[in-house]
Design brief:
By secondary structure, the protein is mainly α. It contains 6 helices and 3 strands, in the order H-H-E-H-H-E-E-H-H. Pfam families: HTH_20.
Length: 169
């Protein structure tokens, strides 16, 4: 039996599920809406939504009656604390999923200038903590401003960040 953190990691360490989490940050959606937006079958979208829900990465925001059935609408509670990888194997799985998503996203880039940084540096602990806090602030700002897909007056953007202290050896 896996623990909750491992289940959450396995649920999110999948490119389609990362797309779903991003999609459900700005709005609540049903499986049918997710399927249309991501060009998936309804069954495939439902499967991925169930995996994310069971792992505690989504919540059922509402339910509505449609043609005699009940459709759940899901959302990603991005502002709640989520467990992170606790060991090297979990961390590597998460990084592989992030890397695959970054490749997909950059291939879909609109060609406008962005900001890319790759660094392995020695800095003071104070600078490290300051930059870590700034990245969290940027992430929270984008997540908090997220809107439903294709909303008037919006642009589709991507943000991938990782900052961590390394072993000095």
């Amino acid at each position: 039996m896996t623990d909750d953190a491992t289940q959450a990691l396995r649920a999110t360490a999948h490119p389609v599920r990362l797309q779903i989490l991003s999609l459900l940050t700005g709005t609540e959606m049903s499986a049918a809406e997710v399927a249309r937006e991501l060009d998936l079958t309804h069954a495939n979208a439902s499967y991925h939504l169930r995996q994310l829900l069971e792992a505690g990465q989504l919540v059922v925001a509402s339910e509505e009656v449609i043609r005699g059935g009940v459709a759940k609408r899901y959302r990603h509670p991005w502002d709640q604390e989520h467990r992170t990888a606790r060991n090297p194997e979990e961390r590597q799985a998460w990084v592989r999923a992030m890397a695959a998503e970054l490749v997909r996203r950059t291939s879909a880039a609109a060609g406008t200038p962005g900001n890319f940084t790759d660094a392995e540096l020695w800095v003071s602990p104070e600078v490290f903590e300051e930059v870590k806090a700034l990245l969290k602030q940027c992430s929270n700002r984008l997540h908090g401003a997220a809107r439903p897909p294709r909303s008037e007056g919006t642009v589709k953007v991507a943000m991938t960040s990782a900052i961590f202290e390394m072993d000095p050896s």
